[in-house]
Amino acid sequence: MSYINNLIVTFVQLLPKSIVRVFSGKYIAGDTLQDAVSLTLELNKKGIYTTIDVLGEDISTRDEAIYAKNECSKILDAIKKFKLKSNLSIKPTQMGLMLDSDFCYQQLSELLDKAVAIDNFVRIDMEDSNTTDKTFALYKRLRQKYNNVGVVVQSYLKRTLPDVKSLLPFKTNFRLCKGIYIEPEEIAFKSKNEIRKNYLDSLRFMLQNDLYVGIATHDEYLVNESYKMIKELNVSVNKFEFQMLLGVREDLRTKINEDGYKVRVYVPFGKDWYAYSIRRLKENPQVAGHIVKNLFGLK
Predict the structure, then answer these.
(1) What is the per-residue pLDDT across 102-129, written as a single tens digit (0 to 9) for each?
(2) What is the pLDDT of residue 26?
């Protein structure tokens, strides 16, 4: 199957962009912020929340980082203007994390100040393992001043549960996901069962310690086990939410929503949709198989 998925990735890259858009369109709101706003309004009508992300984390200059920050600021403006049930997700490298940590901190501070003013929240996404320590350091520094900021942890990394425990004093608001980046076996679990176990162990610690968590998964097994854990621990519905990517497992998303649990969908937009799509396929070739299955309605 991995061989087939890699062939699909190669095949997709040979196609014209107009055709690739067929592959990516279901998973990206569109080129513009208005596309993301319109989609969020549609989801909000169904009782589903969103987190909006502007594509383009690969930056190399301060000017590019400032431009990205300004685009994120526009998202917060739109959330206020259209009364969206949404918040903001950002990639720390997009804000200049790998250029200058102080500069990145200032960038995030400006966004968080604006989010505070409209009673909103900013999620710092987690990227590959080269950025993990710097991302946590950034989060801890911001958390000393701001309450409206959270971070992401990835259960395929062996360090995740210790990281979660180390962040307990910060009363961290987490998004817990499996992780998508390709990492070496020395630092990452490779088997499905190990990743699932680490996910559930981390989730149990979060819930037992009264930490808010976005349970981000498309794995029906993990959703079902989360249901059981929530019931076992008698967790209040205002202490967690389920989170999913746009266009993935919409059937499962509908079920969770109809079961009365809060659901938030990750809504990316931007002109960098092509680079984003190809990069994601290269990082995780099995996604290509899922895309083809979804496109043709296969199980």
Answers:
(1) 999 999 999 999 999 999 999 999 999 9
(2) 80
Q: Answer positive or negative: Cα dihedral of 206, 149, 85, 273.
A: negative
- Between CA 29 and CA 35 the distance in angstroms is 6
Q: Nearest 5 degrees, angle CA 234-CA 237-CA 240? A: 100
**E strands in the chain:** 49-54, 86-90, 122-124, 149-154, 174-177, 213-216, 240-245, 263-269
Structural domains in the chain plus CATH codes: 29-269 (3.20.20.220)
Query: What pLDDT, on the 0 to 100 scale, is given for residue 279?
Result: 62
The SS3 call for residue 175 is strand
User: Which residues make Cβ contacts (< 8 Å) with residue 53, sequence separation at least 6?
Assistant: 88, 89, 90, 91, 125, 266, 267, 268, 269
**Structure tokens, 5:** 């998925």
Question: Which of 38, 99, 23, 26 has its CA nearest to residue 292?
Answer: 23
Check the CA dihedral 205-210-216-220 and report its sign: positive
Q: What is the pTM of this model?
A: 0.90
Q: Helix count (H) and strand count (E) of the chain?
A: 12, 8
DSSP 8-state secondary structure symbol assigned to residue 93: G
Q: Report, as residue numbers or ranges, the catalytic residues.
A: 125, 175
Which regions of the chain are under pLDDT 50? 1
